[in-house]
Amino acid sequence: MIRWALKSLLSNKGSLLGSAAGIAGAFILVIFFDAVFRGESTQIVAYAENTSPDIWVMQKGVANMHMATSFLWDWKADNVEELEGVKRVTPISYLNTIIRAGEVEAFAFIVGLLPDADRAGPWEMGKGRKIEKSGEIVIPDVLAKLTGTGIGDKVMITDRAFTIVGLSKGAYSSANAIAFVPFDDLESILKSGGTYSFLLVDLEEGYDPRMMAAKIKNEVEKVNALTQEEFIRNDFAMAMQMGVEIIFMMSVICSTLAVLITGFTAYMQVVKKKREIAIIKAMGTGRASLMGGILMQSAMIAFTGFIMAAGFSFVIIPHIPALAPQLTLVVSFWAVAKMGLLAIVISIAGALIPAWNVTRLDPALVFNG
Predict the structure, then answer these.
(1) Which residues of 204-214 are buried (b: 16+ CB within 10 A; e: fewer)?
(2) Which of 39, 179, 278, 317 could be bridged to 363 by S-S, CB 3.0 to 4.6 A?
(3) Which residue(s) pair with 73 in the sheet?
(4) Cα dihedral angle (310, 313, 315, 317), rounded to 10 degrees?
(5) How many CA atoms lie within 13 A of 296 on its CB side?
(6) 206 pLDDT exceeds 70?
(7) What is the DSSP string of 96-121?
(8) How many Cα atoms are found within 13 Å in the side-chain-facing hemisphere of 250?
């Protein structure tokens, strides 16, 4: 039966490739949307992950950065820095707004940096330099490409013009682009003199972030303090509500479609070979052996489709951002492997019922039509 399964498939290469291509197309969609979801999930918390303080301190009632507004009096930063175990406090100002570059408007997170706040600034520069004086801005390299701007061009934040002096890497996602400006400039835009938005708190070695966060909340008036892990979890949950969940739903829909296509393909492969299977049964092949050959054939078609999908995913998908830089794609080996296992399981399940029915048929009935 193994020989029959192989010979039957290879004798009709067009049918094999067509069936495999249909399965591959469905799973490519699943893998693509999974890559988009993973990429966006990484980028929406890129700022918090790359600055990576031990503790985030913000206004009481605020628990994340994405689409949030926070104001802290500057003296609270001094109070936090005076606590035993605190190594360094880096204040930033922060604004969610529309940035205008040329004829393009894009949503952005604007981070205002004090002169000595390098640890809160861009973590990787692609071109140019970091901000040094008033009126300068660093924007993501992807945003510059999408808006057709570059070093020396002007961008607008509210009614104020800033000159691009640097392009950062890894600071863009479709949900938010992260731009950096001098603290005083953003303070002026916000009209928030004497306040900060967030405090990035680094601890001395040996101090527990959870215990220190609780201590900050108890000893500094009207603030919230969260560990890095808690802050990222909250920020990701908020970003999910703002649109990334749509990508997740698309992944679910495509997965369902892939399952249906795989199952239907396996079903039709068995139905089309009803007469051929009946002949083999009439020649004395046992039901168990016949079932094994049919299911193996379905699994081989699914596996061929999976190999085609995996090849496309690892060779083509990583290069898509070169054509569409606004996309951040992360292809996961384990996600692709799970797709392969799913394809084989569904193909066998899809072939099981028609295979069982065909093996129970009286060959004479098939021959008589």
Answers:
(1) eeebebeebbe
(2) 278
(3) 195
(4) 180
(5) 15
(6) yes
(7) EEEEEETTEEEEEEEEEE-TT-GGGS
(8) 15
Q: CA 103, 104, 106: angle at the middle one, nearest 5?
A: 155
- 96-105, 217-226, 346-355: which range is least confident on average? 346-355
Residues 274-302, buried b or exposed e (16+ Cβ, 10 A)? eeebbebbeeebeeeebbebbbbbbbbbb
Whether the CB-CB separation of 92 and 172 falls below 8 Å is answered with no
Q: How many CA atoms lie within 13 A of 141 on its CB side?
A: 15
Bridge pairing between strands 177-182 and 104-113? parallel
Q: Which residues pair with 24 in a beta bridge?
A: none
The residues, ordered by sequence, that sit 6+ positions from 115 with a Cβ below 8 Å of its Cβ are: 182, 183
Over the range 181-197, which residues count as b (16 or more CB within 10 Å of their CB) and which as e?
bbbbbbbebbebeebbb
The per-residue pLDDT for range 123-174, each reduced to its tens digit, is 999 999 999 999 999 999 999 988 889 999 999 998 899 999 999 998 988 7
Alpha-carbon gap, residue 358 to 293, rounded angstroms: 13
